[in-house]
Design brief:
about 140 residues; Cytidine Deaminase, domain 2; 5-stranded mixed beta sheet; 4 helices
Length: about 140
């Protein structure tokens, strides 16, 4: 586990870990939990992956958490995101989730990756998504 994490990050990790237990993953058997904190808001929003026989209808834990926050408080900038899975080497968000994250991000936003033992790694969003698909003139 990473040393000297802010207590709010540890609390959010615990929420992601608990959400992971609620995962509906009968096809992959790969449970994932996530928690997101938006800037300026104390509440942490969390989610788990929910699969469907029509794989396109499946939702990842990260998007579930983000969209729960959007439903509650509207579009806001994210302060940080936590992803938890039962893997020795923690897993980053998938490409679909990274694209969603890019709508709410700051390039310096930390993404904490954890497993059942705790948070193991932290990356800045710009490290795992250096060229987001959102730099367009509308």
């Amino acid at each position: 586990m990473l040393e000297k994490l802010h207590p709010d990050v540890v609390d959010a990790y615990e929420k992601a870990l608990k959400a992971r237990e609620n995962s509906y993953s009968p096809y992959s058997h790969f449970k994932v939990g996530a928690a997101v904190k938006f800037k300026g808001f104390e509440q942490v929003f969390y989610g788990c992956n929910v699969e469907n026989a029509s794989y396109g209808a499946t939702i990842c834990a990260e998007r579930n958490a983000i969209w729960s926050g959007v439903a509650a408080i509207g579009k806001q900038d994210m302060e940080y995101l936590i992803v938890v899975a039962d893997q020795e080497e923690p897993v980053p968000p998938c490409a679909l989730c990274l694209q969603v994250i890019s709508e709410f991000y700051d390039a310096e936003m930390p993404i904490y990756l954890g497993n059942l033992k705790g948070i193991q790694k932290v990356y800045l969003l710009k490290e795992i998504l250096p060229v987001p698909f959102n730099n367009f003139v509308a």
